[in-house]
Design a protein that fits this description.
Elements: H1 21-70, E1 79-80, E2 108-109, E3 114-117, E4 138-145, E5 156-164, E6 201-207, H2 214-222
Parallel strand pairs: 1-4
Antiparallel strand pairs: 2-3, 3-4, 4-5, 5-6
């Protein structure tokens, strides 16, 4: 009987074959290149999601402020008649600090020039509605313009800018509008930090107090610009 013994040499069966060191290194390189390619896309997507949420909260804060001013629950802003500034050209708030210490309305801040909208409660248990270390609290600046009068009871155009509360910390300089470069909101497509020197939302509306007359409205809109 002729018995054949298996050969002891040669290549192992295919099922037992493994990767060589070179193939393993190539796989690592390919994966690294792919991560480098999609990493910025993932970061951009996450940043845009964060920014969209901030803009949503800022829009809610703006509408809360507008409704409060129109119902007279919130004091009217200072109304100017300077046609060179109107609404968009009026000064932005001064940053660096946020003081909400009005005894009758703790939501009024910085000498009643700003209005705080609290979205996370008094998380520091200090009695203050807005915290500069909050990522969701919003601060609203209202500005008024009427070409014919500085009396808010005559009606005016209300401009609203909404900033993050953490814009009012040392080291952040809030951007001011200029004649050649009006103020614009922060971009919706940004990284997760965004630009704290810019408002998240800007909008305007007409405020017509209940005692305003049709003649007041007519005079305001017919007043020629100098």
């Amino acid at each position: 009987m002729n018995i054949q013994h298996p050969s002891q040499g040669g290549n192992p069966p295919h099922s037992q074959a493994g990767y060589t060191l070179l193939e393993g290194l190539m796989a690592v390189i390919v994966v690294s290149v792919m991560l480098l390619a999609i990493g910025p896309v993932i970061s951009f997507s996450v940043g845009t999601r964060f920014q969209a949420k901030r803009v949503e909260l800022a829009t809610q804060a703006a509408r809360t402020y507008i409704d409060g001013v129109k119902s007279e629950a919130i004091p009217a802003p200072v109304v100017i008649n300077d046609s060179t500034k109107k609404v968009n050209g009026q000064d932005a708030p001064t940053g660096g600090s946020l003081s909400c210490d009005n005894p009758t309305n703790p939501n009024l801040c910085n000498n009643n020039t700003l209005y705080c909208v609290d979205f996370d409660g008094d998380k520091n248990n200090d009695g203050k509605p807005c915290e500069t270390d909050s990522s969701v609290d919003m601060v609203v600046q209202g500005v008024g313009y009427n070409a014919s009068s500085t009396d808010a009871t005559k009606g005016y155009q209300l401009g609203v800018r909404v900033y993050r509360a953490n814009s009012f910390v040392p080291g952040v300089t809030i951007k001011q509008p200029t004649a050649n470069e009006p103020l614009t909101p922060d971009s919706l497509t940004t990284n997760s930090l965004g630009n704290r020197s810019l408002p998240l939302v800007q909008m305007s509306t007409e405020v017509l107090p209940k005692d305003a007359t049709f003649q007041n409205i007519k005079d305001r809109f017919e007043t020629p610009s100098p």
